[in-house]
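On clarity, I found the account of how folds are encoded harder to follow than it need be. Since the whole study asks how a given chain folds, the encoding of that fold should be made plain. For the editor and my fellow referees, an illustration may be useful. An entry of this sort, consisting of the sequence and the corresponding backbone structure tokens, reads as follows:

:::
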Amino acid sequence: MIKYLQSKKGFSLIELIVVLAILGVMMAIILPNINLRERQISAANSTARDFYAAVQSVFTKYSLYEAKLFPYYVPENTEITYDPDNDPNMKYMCYYPALNGNYPFDPQTVKGDMPVSTDLYLEITAKNGQIQHTNVAAYARDRGIAGMFMLCGKSASNIDTEFGKLLATELAGRIDYQDGFYYAKISYTAPAAAVGGVVSKQDTDTVKVMFTAYTKHELPLASGASSTYENANLVFGADNVLSSGEICGTCAAWDSTNNNFVGRVGTKLV
């Protein structure tokens, strides 16, 4: 028994030094990567917050002062006809004159009466501190349209409409734009019926930015079923990391329907 105990050996000093050196190298590799990812998420969130303030200020301005943000609209309760090939500016955006051009709707899905509510979706491409392109789509919520799916299913023909150009002009210079892609969802709620075609002042403040988002890379082009696309690309599996693996900075208003903020685990960028 004595011989057996004496034959047991512990780690030598050299072996301990080698083990500690290996652990040190591993920590030196892992920790910077963790810190880098945290910094990337923090920077993306900060960029989204700046964009949120810029977007809200633009739409609040036009809502309060009843200024036209879009030059084309049709009379209320009028059947909409348009030729997207010859008039691309009308393809995705029309406005009701009851709000002096401030209430958007999709001419492809909304005909006749003003919808109860509309969600406006916006994508901006920025490079070298400048807005390069805009993509805008409006959809009535009571039509059950998947807005982000439709926005990401864009083609070259619905980018840089007149409305998008006007938005880009208004948003330019309000923040320092980082290279990447900016997204926003703006919610409109229809005001009370206008008397004599005039909307009262208290009914003009109907616009709210629901969320803004920022990604370094453009969201994938949408195709197939909307639910399949959303689950594959727009679900937050971890804070600020989409199911596609893309880091996505967000700034969001409280979503009373889902009792959450966009960007939290399990929420969707929709």
User: Anything to note?
Assistant: Residues 10 and 180 are 56 Å apart (CA to CA). The two ends are 72 Å apart (CA to CA). Confidence is low (pLDDT under 50) at residues 194-202. The beta strands are 94-96, 103-105, 117-127, 130-140, 180-189, 207-215, 236-238, 241-242, 249-252.
